[in-house]
Amino acid sequence: MNQRDHDLVLVVDFGAQYAQLIARRVREANVYSEIVPHTASVAEIMSRRPKAIILSGGPSSVYEPGAPQLDAALVDSSTPVLGICYGFMAMAQVLGGSVARTGMREYGRTPVNVTDSSSLLAGVPSTVSAWMSHGDEVVAAPDGFQVVATSARAAVAAFEDYGRKLAGVQWHPEVLHTERGQQVLENFLFDIAGCTPDWTATNIVDESVLAIQQQVGGKHVICGLSGGVDSAVAAALVQRAVGSQLTCVFVDHGLLRKGEAEQVERDYVAATGVDLKVVDASEQFLSALSGVTEPEEKRKIIGRQFIRTFEAAAREVVGEAGEVEFLVQGTLYPDVVESGGGESAANIKSHHNVGGLPDDLQFQLVEPLRTLFKDEVRAVGAQLGLPPGIVWRHPFPGPGLAIRIIGEVTRERLAVLREADAIARAELTAAGLDRDIWQFPVVLLADIRSVGVQGDGRTYGHPIVLRPVTSEDAMTADWGRLPYEVLEKISTRITNEVDQVNRVVLDITSKPPATIEWE
């Protein structure tokens, strides 16, 4: 995709846990944004011709030996700069202000008082609740800067030099806990930096289609469809660009949830008209998993089987279509960032993205989602007319239900889990809570039996675990506070309708310390 036609905002990452979130919030304002490491030189950053620069937070103190440094040339250029938390303090220090450890720390929600009118805080109430995370303090703003906000423990909580297009805030406007945070970011983007809000789903689709056509030309393309939103949207974009030059392969490993294979084979094909090759390999996968209980071994077996199955299907496609030069992968921007932004990003989700194919099946990669966050992928999917059930599908692991069965994976256990999972999803949808929950694993404790009473008799059934979580990016997650009446409906239906289950429990552990999936 060609981003050169859009204004670019670069987020300089000083080790912040929120760097990706800052970039996402900028894009939510319809301005294109990318992340660069703080080690990038001013020359490298300026060669990208950014419309604006945002300096992220970070865990260090600006005066500590070895702390990330801010080159004064970056804030002495004519490019508008916004400093956030550590970036705010680094900016103050390098421009001649004073930063000190006063012993006055602020963490969490903190009242901030707007003390002067400014472009940065225009329209913000005189007092807002903001998310703070700092032990140091800007005690004196640099010359030429107007102090525009304070807090109980920060005499300088925000400053601005409108003439030089420089501003900063001590708090984190990017987190949802901060009131009017998005407004502060948009004030900077539009009123101070003069950005144009033209990064939209429509433009992304149009530019992606053009870029795919230029890359692929008249050659044939293959894509492994998983049923997940990433591969579905990536394939739909390629289909929109090159039509019949694309063949999709859907490997049904027998580990999907109820109705998902049919969703791909029927609804997705109807929406896109894609040429789909379905491979039913469920017997092969179940046979390979027989007797296996160790979680990592399950993953490795499924990965190996997937590659072998896809390889055989790819050979058939090559035999039918002639030379196939391109493979579609659903790599997202967080994958690229977390891999250091290099070409190694293609190997992150090895078996999910069909890594590990043999040397005689070499493809060039087509990665139409490489610049996008998950929420942007969903917006593009909706723009392409994909069914809502695919666009808004919760993230689902490549190994499928195999890692939601604690114990050996068998056809009978899969049937039990499928029914319980389908009930949980149906009730979540009926309650209108699908989009409030990031992911909702339902887990079968297949190697545990507990005593129950059903139909006036004692039973020895399996427990089902409900694991609703909320998250921005899956790096951290909190357990989802579902209403008791929804949990009660799910529990009652599962114990009434699913054989061999007599107990439903709720996992209320955050990530960390727990992971989202149980295996």
What does this structure look like?
This protein is of the alpha/beta class and 519 residues long. Helix content is 33%, strand content 23%. It contains 15 helices and 22 strands. A nine-stranded mixed beta sheet has the order 2-1-3-4-11-10-9-6-7, sandwiched between helices. Helix 6 crosses helix 7, helix 6 packs across helix 12 and helix 14 runs antiparallel to helix 15. The radius of gyration is 26 Å and the shape is globular.
Q: Give me the side-by-side strand order of the main sheet.
A: 2-1-3-4-11-10-9-6-7
Gap between N and C termini, in Å?
36 Å
- Largest sheet descriptor: 9 strands, mixed
Uncertain stretches: 342-355
Strand content: 15-25%
Query: SS-based structural class?
Result: alpha/beta
> What is the general shape?
globular
Q: Compute the CA-based radius of gyration.
A: 26 Å
Number of helices: 15
The beta-strand count equals: 22
Helix proportion: 25-40%
Average residue-wise pLDDT: 88
Structure summary:
The strands form five sheets. A nine-stranded mixed β-sheet has the order 2-1-3-4-11-10-9-6-7, with helices on both faces. A five-stranded parallel β-sheet has the order 14-13-12-15-16, sandwiched between helices. Strands 17, 18, 19 and 22 form a four-stranded mixed β-sheet that branches. It has 15 helices and 22 strands.
